[in-house]
Design goal:
192 residues; mainly beta; Immunoglobulin-like; 2 domains; 2 helices; 39% strand; globular
């Protein structure tokens, strides 16, 4: 992350030069003064360890944006055991706007913790900055309260915007949870 003033005033010359030459992309984050730094070029291939999902393409924005792969793992932090969901997104056409991502447990409101009153895990997707066929990676960590019940729920991923007091959505995908819930009880997990 970097704040606008750092770039506008040229506090870090090599970073300013990389941004102006196109080697680094300043992606909006949903915060008015912070950008996320993304290196260019962004890959058009999935990492070798990932496999494509068996989902119809174009789940979001009337066919313009897709989740093409996802990955789950259980990780342990000082604050507990977490389900880390990694999503790989790909745009079919140029997009002019940015969107928020929400991941919500379906059928397991007490199994996974949420981080706000809307029961959503929020992220920000800088979709206006990606080019067609580029793959961007996004992840969220959800605190696991009842590990034994993980196989009984799914995760619903929505794309939405904030428009005043309304939150219109632009598609959704339901992903089953496939991790082994017993991994929360294993002391060999590394803290991250």
């Amino acid at each position: 992350m970097v704040d606008r003033e750092t770039i506008d005033l040229g506090f870090i010359p090599w970073l300013t030069q990389a941004v102006h030459s196109g080697q680094i992309l300043l992606a909006p984050t949903g915060h008015p003064y912070l950008w996320e730094l993304l290196p260019r070029p962004i890959s058009q291939e999935l990492p070798p360890a990932e496999s494509a999902l068996h989902l119809a393409p174009g789940q979001f924005l009337a066919g313009q944006l897709s989740i093409i792969a996802s990955h789950e793992q259980i990780i342990r932090k000082r604050t507990g055991c977490f389900l880390r969901l990694t999503l790989f997104w790909q745009a079919a056409t140029p997009l002019s706007q940015d969107y928020f991502v929400a991941v919500q447990p379906l059928g397991g409101e007490t199994v996974l913790d949420k981080n706000d009153h809307l029961a959503l895990m929020r992220g920000f997707m800088p979709t206006s900055q990606i080019r067609p066929r580029e793959i961007i990676r996004d992840e969220v960590d959800l605190l696991i309260r009842q590990p034994a019940d993980l196989p009984l729920i799914s995760l619903v991923v929505n794309l939405y915007q904030v428009q005043g007091n309304e939150f219109p959505t632009f598609g959704d995908v339901t992903l089953p949870i496939t991790v082994d819930p017993l991994a929360c009880n294993q002391p060999t997990l590394n803290y991250r």
